[in-house]
Amino acid sequence: MSMAVNLAALSRLRDAMRMAEADVMLVDSGELLAWLTGFTVSETMYRACLVPLSGEPWMVLRKLDEAPCRQSSWLRDVVTYDDAENPRKCVAQSLISRGYSDCRLGVDTRSYGMTADTWQQISEHLPEAVWRPMPGVSDSLRQVKFPYELDLLQEAAHIADTAFLTLKEQVKAGWRVRDIAALAAQIFLSEGADTGETGPVVRSTGDSGFLHAQTHEDIIQNGDILHVELIPKVKHYSARLMRPFIPGGISPEQQHIARQLIALQDAQIAAMKPGAKARDVDAILRNAVLAAGLRADYGNVTGYALGLYTRTPRPSDFSHCFTPAADWRLEENMVFHMYTSAAGLAFSETVVVRPEGGIRMSRLPREVMEI
Fold this sequence. Notes:
- By secondary structure, the chain is an alpha+beta fold.
- It folds into 2 domains: about 5-140, 3-Layer(aba) Sandwich (Creatine Amidinohydrolase, Chain A, domain 1); about 145-370, Alpha-Beta Complex (Creatine Amidinohydrolase).
- The protein is about 35% helix and about 20% strand.
- The protein is built from 10 helices and 17 strands.
- The strands form 4 sheets. It has a 6-stranded mixed β-sheet, with helices on both faces.
- Strand 5, helix 5 (about 115-125) and strand 6 (about 130-135) form a beta-alpha-beta unit.
- One of its GO terms (molecular function) is aminopeptidase activity.
- This is Xaa-Pro aminopeptidase.
- It comes from Rahnella aquatilis (strain ATCC 33071 / DSM 4594 / JCM 1683 / NBRC 105701 / NCIMB 13365 / CIP 78.65).
């Protein structure tokens, strides 16, 4: 991360702090830590970055993690503790030692790091502090992407494209689903992805239940539908892409359903312009799918926020998603995973919001992958 990016991210956060009347912000969401500092680590033991309205932020974390933090981050002030110490007490003591014992302390009350136990312990060790809730700030600050973030998402989308085209060339009827996923994972790693985590690769039936299935032992036969969702990450930034694979050829009925889904989703993506209301964008696809009789009901979202994912309890960001109740508005350079499914067929795209409408980051053809 360049210094210009660091300052821009810090400026966004401090603007939010001023709105919340916070003197110091406690950052403990893994994604916000990575976005702000360039470094993130799991919550094996509690860790946090403390950001004052003026002056230099500092990190509090395990001594074991100090070296990688200094290597990856622009932060110079790093406070460490031994594994036998109480991490939350160390966070409180770092504030006290810098003169913030009675500060107005900003905290994202929706952060998975800010558990009731964490709040209680820090409160006990910092009794004079006044808490300033900033619910959802860890997600909202990151929705409009910087240019470097778009570049990383584009790299991830290219890896997904490469993997899909390789699967189309090599996969045949008779393959185990596990072996198909293993091939995708191999391509991810060889092409520069952070990990080999593929996303769901499963035999599909129904309208949406297969999207989160986890079975890898099935053997794909002619006439089956193989659902493939690939989610490669580059420096934590994940592009996502779904396509159905059908060995032995697609039936006329399946082709008819696929073309309808793709056309309706294309119309939805075209409407993804700055200022558009999310529920209106959602309705373009949802209402048309139901009206066409492609599904009897449509309970799931039609898209959700994409960007930076770390080792967290949350594999997807639903802070901004497309539903009939979504009243937020799109902004330029927001990025979303837009998806639709019916009759075992699912299509999705990584889409960036532009003035002319949504732009796909993938270059993969919008079609069923026949193998």
